[in-house]
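Crash report, auto-generated. Payload:
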Amino acid sequence: MVRETWNGTQEDLRKLGAMMQRFEGRDPMESLIPLLHYVQDEYRYIPEGAAEIISDCWHIPMTDIFGVVTFYADFTAEPLGRNRMSICEGAACYFMGATDLAAAALDALNIQYNETTPDGAWTVSRADFCYGACHLAPLVEVNHKIRGPLTAEQVAETVRHSPANEH
Amino acid sequence: MEANTLPLPGAQVMSQQTEIEMVNLTIDDKPVTVPKGTFVLYAAQQAGIAIPNFCQYPDLRPFGACRTCMVEIVTKRSSMDISCSTPVSEGMKVYTKSQKVVEAQRFAVEALLVDHPVDCPICDKSGECDLQNHAYTTRVRVNNPLARPKMSWEYETLSESVMIKRDRCVLCGRCVRVCDELVGSTALAWARRGYASYIDAAFGEDLKQSPCVSCGLCIEVCPVGALLNTSYHDTARAWFLKRVDTICTFCGVGCNMQIHVEEGSGRIKRIMADSEKGVNGQQLCARGFFGYEFVQEEDRLTEPLVRKNGELVPTTWREAFGIVAERLSGYHGSQFAGIAGAHNTNEENYLFGKLVRGVMGSNNLDHDAGAGRGVRALGLREVFGSDAAMNSFVDIFENSRAVLIIGSNLSASHPVFSYRLQTAVRRRGIKLIVASPTPVPLSQIAELNLQYREGAEADLLNGMAAIIAQRGIAAEGFLRDRVDGVGEWSDAAQGYSLEAVASSTGVPAEMLERAAILWATGGAGEEGRGEEGLFPPAAIVYSNALSLRDGGERIDYGAAALALLTGNVGRPGAGVNSLKVANNGQGALDMGCAPFLLPGELSVEDAGARERLQQVWGLDRQLEPEPGLSLEEMTRGVERGQIRAMYVMGSNPAEASPNPGRTRDALSRLQFLVVQDMFLTPTAQLADVVLPACSWAEKDGTFTNAERRIQRVNKALNSVGQSLPDWTILTQLLERMGYGRLYRRSEDILDEIASVVPKYAGITPLRLEREGTVVRQRPGKVYRNPSVDQIGRLGVQWPADTEDPSGTGVLYADGFPDGRARLIPVPFGTRAPLGDGVYKSTIYTSLYHQGTGTMTGRCPTLVSLHEHGAADSSPERGRGVGMLTGPLLRQSGYSTGQLTDI
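Recovered output after restart:
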């Protein structure tokens, strides 16, 4: 997966245009969320510039797009790190030491939950939902893959040595 | 554009609903009868029962966010439901005070208090806060069982005019919804969800970068102190404010507003719309909401000034009147000229006309009708008999099926009209056609946008009319019965071939055809003809500044041709509506502030009219029968030595004139110049005597808005310094000149107007006060007992001598003043001359300023909102440019101007 930052270049416009093309003939309001998924996957956030173009072309107020982007946890208005870690703090993981895992990851990266490292390598968040994999507790999700059970050391090691763009 | 299928709350004013089905129900065992579709909340209000609620607001669609308005509803079985979005049904029993209801309502309010900081002592809203009221009426418990640590937010500014304190927010969404539904701006958004929800501009931008028009409606509708007015913040307590109903002093819409004056200091603290049934609904624009600061500016004139040794020095009223009376007696007839003010009241303009015509014996009388121009030939008067908009605003919103806007950025010139039209277009599916050389905000919701070449308005309108005639969709019966000159017009229409019009206007032929058919058939298509051979009604709307240019009457003729050809005159939802730009532009014309018109739009050449006027005014000499010089001609009149003395009231020709330098030279060449104004304007700086006048907030009187509605202006404050209302100054001056003490109150002048001006016959102060009065009840205010506390006024539309106490909503419904209307042919290709320069682009005045900015330029909030430079010529977002003077701009002023070079 290619991951770039939105700069409003011709290439960006072409990419966004291609994404919007897929919804041709469909109702804009119905197509907005699937389109935003494409944008989020591509850029790791919903750039304001992209939202403006969507707003102008599909006649959806910017406020509505902003509302959708902030409502759903899958979308962000700020760029996320190249790697994402979600730490489950559900009951099972919690009792198996999820807080230690979180502390280890956040200390190693020197950030807080929902923050991105200054070099843009990692974003760590608390899991929004149950993975249904309590037998792996304590577990973390790294770039859409579930790993567990893990120790605090292993988590710290993951964030420290994981090269950028590793999936 | 989705159709609104949900029933709208409130009465449908003036709509042409045939039969309204009524529903009977009981609320707290009180029998109530309301129209079908009314929500329980409104039915209860009608029965005098207040139900606490936050998210409902009149004229918004039901939303059901706050859950505070729970009531017990018994139909077949008993259930709890929210009253704001439950429609009434026959035999329904509603209980609003039962134990279950009280507990449910209290729970909702307690839930809102979990995060609310309850910082009432330092909150601007305290005393008029719905949360305070509902917490009180639902008796919330001191120890809130839902309590947890509160989330807190600091004050933040969204723009120079709007602040937000998010922890006070109850997330009712009124602000987001009024912005979308009533203003059409969509500047505010919900962000995030659940506990974390908050209100913000899209992507957290400054509101000024968003489509926000700073109308202040979000602040006004906020039921708590979350959205705050920066200029009101921390300056007053609500319970010390006296609220005075009056009419806005800026544009021709004539919005009803309340001036809130602090009781101790006597200063204006803020302005709110707050009356339920004015022409503006509950809305104001940025000018109305924030444009009061000039009243309290330091540089208001507080004492009369006279020129001594070349310097303007303060003097007494006695001396000033003495000088003016003495010097004026040295001039007579055409040596003298007067310029009245389009922002002055009817009484003042009438009296001014009496001074100029009756006392000074001159017909050199005019007013700045817009863009620094005087009253023109009045094309509409030639065609129909009267220069006025035909249909009332509400009638257009409720009944039109298609609306054509030509050459006007109504969002800046008549903002509230454009907001309400926008709502009507979206809710009722009105087919909107916007013809404009550059895109304007309303273009975004238009069915068709015709982008024509500047100056081709007459070709465009007549071209569309020619298409209608050729297509055979004209209203033949109407033309036969009520219109003259059809033959000549048809001959001239031969010259308007589709190709020629397309190449002259720059609008593609196919677009022209679509627009003509869409408008002529009221969107119903060529098969949609109704019973009387007429299509559904369609209206034309434009700002009258458009037809003030040289040759502008051709635009009036074209618009009139379109309307007459399709029978869109004298019926609801139709008409040629040329809206006067200034708040009392219509009134100034009605009062005869034009070189060729006496009060009541009677020609100065009409001997009978002059005779009557002489009698009422008690003159022993004859009124002049020759038309005088217009505003533009006055400059030349001074230059050639004809005019030697001039009296300017509430006008600033030295800046507003299309050629300010030349006008300034002419004014300084006068032997004697009197200027009566609030400020030392560039015109006043040239005067020999400057008389300090009051602002509109400091006087009584009447304004006539762009839809002919005469409305009362009420005094809210005491005059600043020694300044006096213009009518008092004129009365005292007339007394000084030997005419006796004529008027004690402004109402005395109104009585005289009613006897002189036929259209105003039957107008009395009491009638203006009473007619259309609507009383509404709001849930009680904490520091007052719950009571009926709002009275909205509607005023009276002239001709007022009607059975209907609110006057004439639709002009010419019973025929034309001269019996028949007259189609006036315009030869093809007569473009309005654009002046001597080569124009690069059309610019529009700003939403935040009006005229030369004498008033708006002194309002810090408006100035801060207006940050666009001279090179901005894109009014899409409703801002545009304003207050441009100097060599760049040849035509400056109210609505449009042309930029010669960037």
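Post-recovery validation: The two ends of chain B are 38 Å apart (CA to CA).
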